[in-house]
Amino acid sequence: MDKKRRDFLKIAGASTLAGLGGTAVVDRLVSGTSPVQSKATKEVDSGHGGGHEAAAQGHAAGVEVAKSGNRFGMIVDLRKFKENPALGDIVVEACHGTHNVPDFSEKKDEIKWTWLTGYGGAFTEHSRLYKDQLTLDNDVLVMCNHCDNPPCVRACPTKATFKNKDGIVAMDYHRCIGCRFCMAACPYGMRSFNWRDPRAGLDMNKLNNEFPTRMRGVVEKCNFCAERVGLGKQPACVEACGDSKALIFGNLNDPESEIRKVLKANYTVQRKPSLGTHPSVFYIV
Ligand code: SF4
Ligand code: SF4
Ligand code: SF4
Questions:
Q1: Is the CB of 181 under 6 A from ligand 2?
Q2: Taking the model in full, what pTM does it have?
Q3: CATH code at position 268
Q4: How far is residue 219 CA from its own chain's centroid?
Q5: Has residue 67 been placed in a domain?
Q6: What is the pLDDT of residues 209-244, one digit of tens each?
Q7: How many domains does the chain divide into?
Q8: Any atom of ligand 1 within 6 Å of the Cβ of 150
Q9: Which H/E stretch holds residue 7?
Q10: What are the tens digits of pLDDT across the range 157-167?
């Protein structure tokens, strides 16, 4: 057994491989002849979306990355979304436009990185008793929680999903084999699978050439704008909120950061806290 194959077996584990279809999958993975992988490499490297996917995700070669000591997080201030109901759509449009997220009319093909959902669906563990009706009727912006203890990362047999040096749960599309274990593992339903070629759902005149398009057969989700954060920029959704402070992004490990100060000054909740995933997205309800 060659070294690459042994290394992969160590990563995947025998039970996972059974779920993937056995050693044939290993052979395809280590030889680089997986149809999905080949397509991914071709599509990303061909310049669709302008640039290498790994760079866009802020992912250095390999998946074992040194920790920076940062842990990025987000506050969603639902009071601001209540004050300005148009903000939700503005944010979703900014995110999806920035990341070339396709727009398919059929629900089964839908790809979403962030979206609005009902209060009850977002906060399943929180009491609604005696809450004011406006709060309950107000939609809640949801996105990947970039959990500090992410079950999706543990479930991924190829390390296509990984926690980067800044605590961001990122994706390497080259490594994704489309097994969807991460989707089953995410208790928040924050991941989408490309059943169709996503490029068919894009307006090519509005393509963001700074971010790669994806391909059929891979999973995707909010990446906390790792490609922007790596350049010292704010996430696109935060920028789209202007000065409203509806979204606040920053380093949770820095006690002097704005996000830490806002967390200290306000009561916030996380989604499904009982699961122990330790979400990095906080809500001011
Ligand atoms: S919200 Fe889901 S996809 Fe995001 S890090 Fe947590 S478990 Fe993973
Ligand atoms: S579908 Fe999810 S679990 Fe499977 S390889 Fe891709 S990222 Fe990993
Ligand atoms: S942080 Fe970036 S990827 Fe995540 S919802 Fe905001 S704009 Fe989208």
A1: yes
A2: 0.80
A3: 3.30.70.20
A4: 10
A5: yes
A6: 999 999 999 999 999 999 999 999 999 999 999 999
A7: 1
A8: yes
A9: helix 3-12
A10: 999 999 999 99
